[in-house]
Amino acid sequence: MGRGVTMAGRRRDDGQNFIMLLADARSDEGKRSLEALLKAAGGRASAMRIADGLQVVRYLPGVDERGSDGRG
């Protein structure tokens, strides 16, 4: 995990695990880390801006952003 990114794991009430990342995109390194995380997630993550230069990324392992489990 790159600089400027903080991670916390969580479990929803329905038992689905997800990971929340706080990305400080005010620096070039933070921007590159955020872009790399979103690319690596391959559609299973979404980012939301919460303040100037700060974004929260929600990542659901094994589930894409449309809610599909990827099994076709």
Describe this structure in words.
This protein has 72 residues and is α+β, with helices and mostly antiparallel strands. It has one domain. It has one helix and four strands. Strands 1-2-4-3 form a four-stranded antiparallel β-sheet, covered by helices on one side. A hairpin with a 2-residue loop joins strand 3 and strand 4. The longest helix is centred in the middle third of the chain and has 14 residues. The radius of gyration is 13 Å and the shape is globular. The C terminus is likely disordered.
Keywords:
globular, 4 strands, alpha+beta, four-stranded antiparallel β-sheet, 72 residues, single chain
Summed up, what is this model?
This protein has 1 helix and 4 strands, in the order ββαββ. By secondary structure, the chain is α+β, with helices and mostly antiparallel strands.
Strand content: 35-45%
> What structural category characterises the helix and strand content?
alpha+beta
SS element count, helices: 1
- Tell me the number of structural domains: 1
How many extended strands? 4
**Spatial gap, N to C terminus:** 30 Å
Strand order of the largest sheet: 1-2-4-3
Tell me the radius of gyration: 13 Å
Average predicted confidence as pLDDT: 68
Helix and strand element order: EEHEE
Helical proportion?
10-25%
Low-confidence stretches: 67-72
Largest sheet: 4 strands, antiparallel
Shape descriptor reads globular
